[in-house]
Amino acid sequence: MERPAGAEAPDGDRGSGLAVAGVVVAWALLAIVLARRLAGLALDDFFITYRYAWNLAAGQGFVFNPGERVFGTTEPGLALLLAGLARLTRAAIPALGTCVTAAAMVGCAALLLAAARERGRLTDAIAGGTLALASSFLWVSHGAAAPLVLLCLLLAASLDGERPRGQIAAGLLAGAAVWLRPDAAVGTAILGLLLWRERRRLPWRYGAAAGIVIAAGLAAAWWTFGSALPQTGIAKHAMAAAAAGRDASAGFWPAALPILGRHWGPLWMGIAALGLAGLPALAAGTGRAGRLLALYALALGVLYPILGVPFFVWYAFPLAFAALYGTAFAAGWAGRRVARPRARWAGAAVSALLLVAVGWSLLPASARWFRGYRWFPYLETYRRAALFVHERSAPEDAIAYVEIGVVGYYSRQPLVDLLGLVTPGSIPYVEKSDLVGAFLARPTTWVLFHTRGRMRPLVNRPWFQRAYEDVGHFYDSDGRGAMTVFHRRPGSALPPAGAPGTAHEMPPS
Question: Is residue 417 helix, strand or coil?
């Protein structure tokens, strides 16, 4: 029952409110510390979005390569946000990406905390939020759009679905989430179904608002790029299809297991099982927001393998976030089942035992990762090589390589992506595992080779060694790899590209 206007809150409510505020402040401080530790040192793929943002902020258009209208970012909404923040703050875009992640994670935790407080599950939500914010597995994806997508969807779910304004605002937020990442459409649809089920009436205001925002995004993408959907999905599907003898749908989640072991510690399998088992308790204990989180996470967990895309850690963010909350709510549920009117201590002991076991495994593993974290040495090598090329290039001199995020962001040069994320002409060659053909279809002034090995089929060709000279060497700080920078000799000849999958050799003279 609502309190009369102007009435003071009971002491219990006031104390609970102060406790909630204190928890959120503590989470925010933790997020600030971790964000400062990681700021700007994101994964290579995220720098693709950062380059779109940088070009837009610099007045060169919403493009990866100036003059090329290619929809090569899966996260256009994040690129637009980062471009705006960069113009306002003059801060570096990679650091802004980390800050957005930190703010979004704290926002998600605060929303779930408020929802749990209303249902008497405050302790469960405090434990769940602390596990999530302290988990290095989630912070691996710092700089991606996934945390912000989740915040938009949870905020939409938290609005009053009974009032027209609440439905419209929820629709606008859910539609905006789709701008951030197209797969947020799954969450948008789930929220619509939840509202329909609760009200027993079609939430047409929510659907109309979300549809207008999504339609506006599709129209803007078509007008900007000539395509309504990102090129990246096609390219990643081609990569998966080219993986000879491997079923991508069977390998998606198995690829995640070593990463979970690294970040969740020796009990990672138990944490995962407990987290999944706790999703019903999470849904019951946090209302519509928790139901949306659980269903959205599970839906993506099934959908990605079906789509046949290769595993990327940021794809697992929603499910990992939900599972960590699930462990806390499972522990709370187990304690309540054991507790008796005269033996409440028994339930508290069971809950504490489960949470201590989870924390004993997860927190030290995460702490080791945070303490030892530095940018991947090969990415720092990429940055140094990119700056080297930029200093010696004319604006039109292009670079060919297979990992284009960091190289593209720091070189500012045109990039030919031999895996097709921003170079559509490469995709037929990617499907045939024909990197050499992709290069010959669009040869460049500069070519990069790292001992990670993907470029070896190209740089080992005799005709390549005659046409290009190595002009720079950069070594990874851990001594495990090195990058060679090649520059094309003036007037050198190259073989024709030919059809994808065919031999690419110099014709006889």
Answer: strand
- Whether 340 shows a pLDDT value over 90: the answer reads no
Return the percentage of the chain with pLDDT > 90, whole number. 81
Q: List pLDDT tens digits, range 107-117.
A: 999 999 999 99
DSSP helix/strand/coil, 181: coil
CA angle 68, 73, 74 (to 5 degrees): 150
Joined tokens for residue 93: 């875009």
- CA proximity to 151, closest of 130, 176, 126: 176
Q: Which two tokens stand for residue 413?
A: 């040069």
Calculate the average pLDDT of the chain: 91
SS3 call for 268 = helix
> DSSP assignment, residue 147?
H
Rounded to the nearest angstrom, the gap between the alpha carbon of residue 496 and the centroid of all alpha carbons in its chain is 38
In this structure, the dihedral spanned by the alpha carbons of residues 395, 400, 404 and 407, taken in order and rounded to 10 degrees, is -50
The token pair that represents 351 in the structure block = 């809950």
- Which pLDDT value is given to residue 13? 52
Residue positions counted in the chain: 509
Confidence of residue 411 (pLDDT cuts 50, 70, 90): very high
Share of the chain above pLDDT 70, in %: 93
Q: Are 401 and 378 in contact (CB under 8 A)?
A: no
pLDDT band at 467 (very low <50, low <70, confident <90, very high): very high
Q: CB under 8 Å to 217, separation ≥6 — which residues?
A: 76, 77, 175, 178, 179
3-state secondary structure of 383: helix
Calculate the CA 480 to chain-centre distance. Answer: 27
- Of the candidates 332, 218, 221, the one whose C-alpha atom is nearest the C-alpha of residue 278 is 332
Question: How far is 429 from 409, CA to CA, in rounded Å?
Answer: 25
* Contact in structure between 297 and 190 (CB atoms under 8 Å): no
Are residues 474 and 450 in contact, defined by beta-carbon separation less than 8 angstroms? no
- Number of other residues whose CB lies within 10 A of the CB of residue 307: 15
Token pair in block for residue 476:
């990874």
Distances (CA, A) of 37 to 98, 139, 373, 395: 10, 11, 8, 34
Give me the pLDDT at residue 168, please.
Answer: 96
Strands 468-475 and 446-450 come out as unpaired
- What pLDDT was estimated at residue 98? 98
User: In this structure, what token pair is assigned to residue 184?
Assistant: 């947020």
**Type of residue at 112:** L
Which segments of 403-487 does DSSP mark as H helices, in order? Answer: 405-411, 427-431, 435-441, 456-459, 462-467
